From TrEMBL:
EC main group: transferase
InterPro entries (UniProt xref): FAD_synthase, Riboflavin_kinase, Riboflavin_kinase_bac, Riboflavin_kinase_bac/euk, Riboflavin_kinase_dom_sf, Rossmann-like_a/b/a_fold
The protein's name in its UniProt record: Riboflavin biosynthesis protein
Pathway where this protein functions: Cofactor biosynthesis; FAD biosynthesis; FAD from FMN: step 1/1; Cofactor biosynthesis; FMN biosynthesis; FMN from riboflavin (ATP route): step 1/1
Organism: Brotonthovivens ammoniilytica
PANTHER family, per database record: RIBOFLAVIN KINASE, RIBOFLAVIN KINASE/FMN ADENYLYLTRANSFERASE
Catalytic activity: riboflavin + ATP = FMN + ADP + H(+); FMN + ATP + H(+) = FAD + diphosphate
EC number: 2.7.1.26, 2.7.7.2
Amino acid sequence: MKIIKDTLDFKINEDVILSLGKFDGIHRGHSLLMDALKEGKKRGLKSAVLTFSISPKVHFDSEMKILTTDEEKMQLLYEDGIDYVIECPFNDEIMKMDAEAFLKMLADRMPIREIVAGTDFRFGYKRQGDHELLKRCAPKYGYQIKIFEKRQFEGTDISSTRIRRLLTEGEIEKANELLGYEYFFCGKVLHGNELGRTIAAPTANLLPPAAKLLPPFGVYAAHIAINGDIYRGISNIGKKPTVNGEYPAGVETYIFDFDDNLYDKAIKVSLCSYIRPERKFRSLEELKKQMKKDIQICKDRLDKYEAS
């Protein structure tokens, strides 16, 4: 997969089938577009996705949280077999560009043979461009167009907004249903205070970027990917209230049956099920006892989760 980022000065010389959008989360609603891109590849086209280096909504609302970081989004697109990703910089030039001018710019930079998009897609200055404009411009720029209605789940549209709301409310399993995979965090393991080793539960610490959406602070059953292998574990999301001092919100994970050194190594922590809220304990001994109970609950929960 070739990634073109931080520039609009590029040239693709292969015929492409293109999809455009924010693609935050790349959820089951987006899978309609991903499937259409795969079908285009069967017809000899290269698949291309145009997305943004920062969601326009985040640009205008600093409190807005994202489901996937740029790196996580690239990994999901890679797994979907995308050939080209154009990560468009959301700068003043793009913000003020007329919708058709934006489309012409893309047509000048690559031979677009097909475009696939959703009915909710908007682009160009003040969101002037939509799927109707894409249809009207198809003969002019020589591409075919396929527009998809939003996929629904339980009678309601599947959307990144809906998934954010479910995650914020702690509905991790339902959010995972809409995502089509377990909500995850990727990153390099950081050095912590090694408190876990003192209670016989060494942990791997990740510090997600501030823009990444965190579900409610608490304890979760988790799957952990390390060098292509999947392990079970238990994760705490929060600020370690039992430990003295101030800590940023992070993801701290105890990996079952694993004792290798993970410092500075990349891992992926995927949340499967919510166990309990984060709480402050009176002592490390009390925390240790609760951790033992949590681990057993977590293993039982994972048995049921994996069997379903």
